[in-house]
Write a structure and sequence with these properties.
Length: about 160
Amino acid sequence: MIQRIYTVWGRIASCCGLISAVGFGLLAVLVTLDVFVRNLALARWPWLNEITEYLITISTFFGAPWVLHKAGHVNVDILLRLVGATAAQWLMKISYIAGFVICLLLLYQSIRVTLDTYEVGSLVFKNLVFAEWYLMIPVVACFGLCAIEFLFRAAGEGETR
C-alpha cells in the first residue's frame, strides 16, 4: 500500500519537475527573445522583467520537491562517513525528521501570509496588476510537497545516496 502511494507521489514530484523545466525553458526563450528584439529596436516589453521574476519563483519553488525526491540536492555527508552504518542511518532519519518539521513550519507561515494577503486584498502594482496571494501559491506548494517527501524518507521510502 505505501509503495503504491509512493508511486503516485513520484508522479506528483515529476509534475513539479516538469513545471520547473517548462518555466526555466520559457525563461531562457523569453530573455533571449527580449535581448534580440531590443537590440534590433523592434519593440520594448516592460512587463517582461516581471514575467521572468515570476518564472524564476515558480520554477525554483516547484523544482525543489522534484530535486528532493530525486536526491539531486547537495549532500554534505562528511559526518556520515565518520560514523558506522547504523549511526549514519539514524543521523539521516533525524535529518529527515528535521527537514519535515522545518518544512511544516515554513508551510504554516506561508499559508498565514497567503491568507493574510488574500483577506486584506493586497495587489501587486507593477506593469502587471494582480492579487499578491497568487505569488504565494508556489511557496505553499513547495513546502507542503517537501514536507511530504521528508515524511516518506523518514518512513524509509525514497531515494537516498
